[in-house]
Design a protein that fits this description.
It contains 7 helices and 11 strands. It has helices at residues 28-43, 82-95, 124-133, 162-175, 183-189, 198-213, 273-297, and strands at residues 47-48, 55-59, 65-71, 74-79, 106-107, 110-114, 118-122, 219-222, 229-236, 247-254, 257-265. A 4-stranded antiparallel sheet has the order 1-2-3-4. The protein is globular, with a radius of gyration of 24 Å.
Amino acid sequence: MEIPSGYGRDVAANTVCKLKKALYGLKQSPRAWFGRFTKVMIGLGYKQRQGDHTLFFKHSKSGGVTMLLVYVDDIILTGDDKEEQQLLSQCLGKEFEIKILGKLKYFLGIEVAHSKKGIFISQQKYITDLLKKTSKTACKPASTPLEPNLKLGNVKDVAVDKEMYQGLVRRLKYLSHTKPDIAYAVCLISQFMHSPKETHLQAAHRILQYLKGTPGRRILFKRNGNVKLEAYTDADYAGSIVDRRSTIGYCTFLGGNLVTWRSKKQGVVARSSAEAEFKAMAQGICELLWLKIILEDLRIK
């Protein structure tokens, strides 16, 4: 708290201000917090990634690297310089009130499991909670996220609760962070959030049925020395029956491990299948360049 400028000139040193009302949830508070945290990290010799402002890294003289990723007030600290990690934890403990939880196991609803093969990530608990909340715990599992050759449009059907539908789609969007197999299906149902109908809700429930049958599927990041970077892209030409726009999809691999993926509807109508494919390739190349910039900061060629 600070006294308003110009008010404290004629006030005695031992005078205090009485707070009548406190405001919570100010939009600038997260920005102020992150600015304070960034200032501390830069003061400790860390650099902020321009491609991802939440990622800080530091190279030690011995050749090691320490990385810190922050999301609001949740932090992941990793690297191969154990001494620097301990020093950073001590310095952050002096500046902020922090709690060290040990080896990474759970972060923002994402479960992390370590093994000799590598690192597994999943959202099994998140899926279980979502099925309970939507009363789909006892539903019949489906083999695919969508029915084959399904085309969704603005059909004349019974309208459903808009807030309920939007909440379900938002949860499925967050779930697609570790479930690339539902990315296209979620992209499809999210196009009707402004006016959802019973047909769209049935498609969303189909995704839940698919998740019921695949709750334990996880993504594996294998331990290997390969740092080959590659991407695959695809596009369906005029796949939308509403506005004839195409949907692009891409996925990128680093050392044979799937690291990023996306399914997105194109902004304009493509005049040919070749144009739709080229736009998908452009998106994939942009993703590769972004990953390349991050790897260069980490001194990985």
